[in-house]
Amino acid sequence: MKYSIIGAGIGGLTTGLAFEKKGIDYQIFERFTNLSEVGAGIWLSPNALQVLDYLNVLDAVKNQGNSIERITIGKPDLSPISDNPQGLIRKMFGYSSIAIHRAALQKILIDKVPKDKISLGQDFKSLRTISEDKVEVAFENDSRVMTDFVIGADGINSKVRNQIFPNSQLRYTGQTCWRGVAEIELTPDFDHRVYELWGDQIRFGFSRISKGKYYWFAVALDKANGKDDKIKLREKLLNMFSAFHSTVIELIKATPNDKIIRSDINDLKPMKNWYKGNIGLIGDAGHATTPNMGQGGAQAIEDAYYLSNLIPNSPNGNAFKAFEAKRRKKVNLIVSQSWMTGKVAHWKYGRGIRNFILKSIPKNLMNKKMIEMYQIEKYNS
User: Fold this and answer.
1) Nearest to 158 by CA among 272, 44, 322, 280
2) H/E element holding 175?
3) CA angle 351, 172, 278 (to 5 degrees)
4) Which end of the chain, N or C, is less surrounded by CB atoms within 10 Å?
C-alpha cells in the first residue's frame, strides 16, 4: 500500500518519519523547489515532544531549541496575571515545552527523512478516484502519480481539503498577528520563560528560541487581509505597544521590517469528517486551530503518530475512519478552547474581572488541564 503525502511542512514530514519507523510505503510531495527558512518560532509542548522522542529526533530539537520552565500571562508591565512554573510537567513527562525556530525544526525533520522520499517542485493540482483502491494525483507541472491513499498535509489553505470538501469554511477571528525573530541578548530572567502580555485589546508574547534569538508575536484587532507599509511597519508596532514594558520595545526595535511577518488569525470551522474514501486530512488541513494554546504544530505531530500506528491494524490499510474517531474529541476541544481564549484576551470591557478570575484559578486545576492535553496513548515501537 502506497501513501502519497501532500505537503512537507511539520505535519507531512513528521508523518513521513512515523511511516518510516513503521515500514509504511510513502512519498512526500512538496510544491516548493527547495525547503528554505520559513516562519518564525514555535513552541513544542510535551505531547509533541513525546512523539519526537519516539521518532528519535528529540535530542536534535533540544540542542537547537530552548527549554521553557515558566509560562506567564501578564499585564503590559510584565506583572503576572497567571504564572505557571513547569516543574510538575517536567516531572511527569520528562521535559517541559521547547521553543525553537520553525526553520530549525523543519531542517531536523527533513534531514531524517530519506531524500528519495521527498519530491520537490510538485504543486498539487487535483485528484481523481480511479477505483475503490486507486487515486490519481495531478500536479501543476502536468505530472501525475497513481497511489493507494492520499494524505492532505498542505495546511490551513489546503487544496486537497478544498477539493474533497468544497464547503469547508475558514473563520477569521477579527485578529491579525505580526511575528518576528529578534537577534538580541536579554537578561537571564528571560532565558527559559514564555511571556504573553494582555493589554487594551492588544497582546504581545515572546520567548528565547536559541542563544541570542527571541521569537515574538504581536496581536491586534484589524480587518481581514490588511496590508502594512513595510517601511513604517516597525514604527507602527512601536506606537501600538508604546505602553508596554521596555523589553517589548527592545524586541521590536531589534527586528528588521522585512523580517516581520503579518498574517490574519484564522481557524477551520470543525468539519463532520476529515476523510473521504482513500483521501484523508491531517494537521491544519483537517482541523486548523488558532495559536492561542500553542497546539497547532503539536496536534499535527500527534496526527502523524496516531495515523502511523493505526494503519497496520486497519482493513486494507485505510485507517482514516479509526484515526478520526481517535482524534476528533481532543482536537475539537482544543479548537474550541483556543478560539475562546483569543476572544477573552481581547475583551474591550471587564478586563479587571477577567484578570481576577484568571489569577484565581487554582494551580492544581491549571496543571490538571495541561496534563490532560499533553498525554498521548502509548503504542509499541
Assistant:
1) 280
2) strand 170-183
3) 130
4) C
* The amino acid at 13: L
CA-atom Rg of the chain in angstroms: 21
**Mean pLDDT, rounded, for 186-205:** 97
Phi-psi region of 329 (alpha: psi -120 to 50; beta: other; left: phi over 0): alpha
User: SS3 for 380?
Assistant: coil
Percent of the chain with pLDDT strictly greater than 70: 99
CA distance 219 to 209: 19
Q: Residue 261: is it exposed, middle or buried by C-beta count within 10 angstroms (0-12/13-18/19+)?
A: middle
Report in angstroms the alpha-carbon separations of 247 from 40, 93, 168: 19, 32, 41
Domain positions in the chain are 2-170+267-374
Report CA torsion sign: 18, 378, 303, 207: negative
Q: What is the pLDDT of residues 149-187, one digit of tens each?
A: 999 999 999 999 999 999 999 999 999 999 999 999 999
| Fold category of 2-170+267-374 in CATH | FAD/NAD(P)-binding domain (3.50.50)
pTM above 0.85, yes or no: yes
Q: What is the pLDDT of residue 120?
A: 96
Q: Say if residue 243's pLDDT is above 70.
A: yes
Q: Which residue has the cell 513525546?
A: 50
Quick one: which of 312, 367, 347, 351 has its CA closest to 18? 312
Residue type, 1: M
Sheet containing 66-67: which strands, arranged edge to edge? 41-44, 98-101, 66-67
- % of the chain exceeding 90 in pLDDT: 88
Which grid cell sits at 208?
Answer: 528565547
Phi (first) and psi of residue 5, to 5 degrees = -100, 120
d(CA 166, CA 200): 38
Scanning the structure block, which residue is given the C-alpha cell 503518530? Answer: 305
- In this structure, the strands spanning 279-281 and 275-276 are antiparallel
Residue 250 CB partners (closer than 8 Å, separation 6+): 182, 184, 186
Question: pLDDT, tens digit, for every residue of 142-156?
Answer: 999 999 999 999 999
